[in-house]
Batch of 3 targets.
Target 1
Amino acid sequence: MKLAPLDATARAALPAQLPHWAMVPGRDALHRGFRFADFSAAWGFMARVALLAQQHDHHPEWSNVYNKVEITLTTHDAGGLSTRDIALAQAIDLLV
């Protein structure tokens, strides 16, 4: 099922809903970076996010270098941001 992209009202609410996330310049996507004490803590966080992503039927673009994790969310089926991105971002925020 194709998801609808966010409308203007939902987009305007993003900064208040997701204050730690930023729009990716030139893309219809959200991004947040995380830092942890060490690689093990970062990897553990990624494992928890992977389980959340599966529950949300969403698969983030992400990378990990030592204690840093970078996550970008966009819904390819919607051609950009959708409610699926907001829900996963909020769930991720609850982990940290």
Target 2
Amino acid sequence: MSFRILLLEDDEEIGEFVAQGLREEGFVVEHAADGHAGSHAITTSAWDLVILDWWLPGPDGFTLLRQFREAGKTTPVLFLTARDAVAQRVEGLNGGADDYLCKPFAYEELLARVQSLLRRPSVLAGSELRHHDIVLDPATNRAERAGKPLGLTARELALLLFMMRHPGEVLSRTRLYEQVWEEEYDGMSNTLEVHVMELRKKLEAHGARLIHTVRGRGYMLGDPADPEGV
């Protein structure tokens, strides 16, 4: 189940530990270490869950939470607070957090809280993505075009999912490697190109081309009329 999680945690060691653990569970995780980067990530991308630390450089966690809810976002938020900060926990819940976890915490408990929040009907109901005649449901790993199942591999599914989260956006090879393969792009491998080619074949068996190559920049999931190589 390729749910997207935004982790806002300024402690590098904690952040990397949690991000790696969640990725090993199959989640797509983006980690931001300060309030400015967090604010940008929250407002420019769609997320299934936000894990939000109170103490962040720049805008703090509560400020981001308040802005997030004032913008009408209903994405579940798991708030991280210090164990003795009762007032923060209350303020966070009153400000729109769905749950909180006190530091220090056991990873197993955090994972259980994450899984519980993602099982909420409101999350699952909103998880289905559509782009033209493509339908992808991360909750069931169902992908189809024009009503026909696509039979995607796990990597192809993850690649299509990320593109459908960012329609009309030029996605660089580096970004795709980091988000789908969770590793740095070395500039030499043609793994991405091979997977894009196979994904295109399966999609174009049922309709016009939607994944376009943007020369020198990367790939874009666009409209059938988009010219190749814009």
Target 3
Amino acid sequence: MVEPIAVQLNGVSKMRKRRVIGPIDLTIPEGYVVAILGHNGSGKSTLLNMLQQIVLPDNGEIIWFGQEKHSGILPIELRQQIGFVADNSGIEENRMTPQEAADFRSHWYPRWDMKLFKKLITDMDVPSDVKLTKMSKGERRKFEIAAALAARPKLLLLDEPSSGLDPFAWKVMVEQFRDYMEGGDTTILIATHIADEVKRLADYIVLMHRGQVLGMAEKDLVLEQWKEIWYEGDLRPENIPGVVESFQEENGLIRVITTRVSEAQERLELSNHRVLKIRNLELGEVLEYWIAGYAPVQWR
């Protein structure tokens, strides 16, 4: 069975002030949360902007929801299926209250769910009688997230969604996304640099670096593959499967980073070398190795 595709980029590139973004070849499956990770300036926001046509690519094609590519402006029926929460809020609705802004947006989105919107702003403690321009950054962010979900988009694009949120509000936001994803056909793309967002929400990771996509990998596999092992003995690290880096400790132990921990353990045990400790690498550590050229074993 062929997996449905939310969006596909074929050779997409865009010239920016400091660098070229792309060419990007990327296929996002439908019904998952995909985190786009990368340092500031890596091209994450430009990629999201091209997906909703805030900027148009200089080269390549984008195919939404498995349909034929479209030259020029997206048809309104496709645009209505794409939601977006930008890193910075727009000014068009500044003088509106949340309900007034919701009424305004409901005319543009045929799947708009006012009941869901009211539930979300209540759950996220968004003041209903305050104009958007008078809200704190966190309150405005929560409104934008509630409005984006209430439109019930098939593709939801989030640029740094936790920006301005306190830890409690962030936890509520995560719960709202999880509840919403139970529907099954929505795809969420999150541009972020925050590891906790990725670990709590994402199914897949897309790594961007200096305008290039370095690959797409399943999050759980990425986190499970990379381990740090301490052992004692004289077995040379290069004889251990999957080793990408090794260290000689002052106490005589050898410490290695491996992407094939089961095989590494088996090799050490068969050669009578005692394993003293195994540690999962943090996501940030894994990404640095990935950037250095050590891609995950299973990746798209």
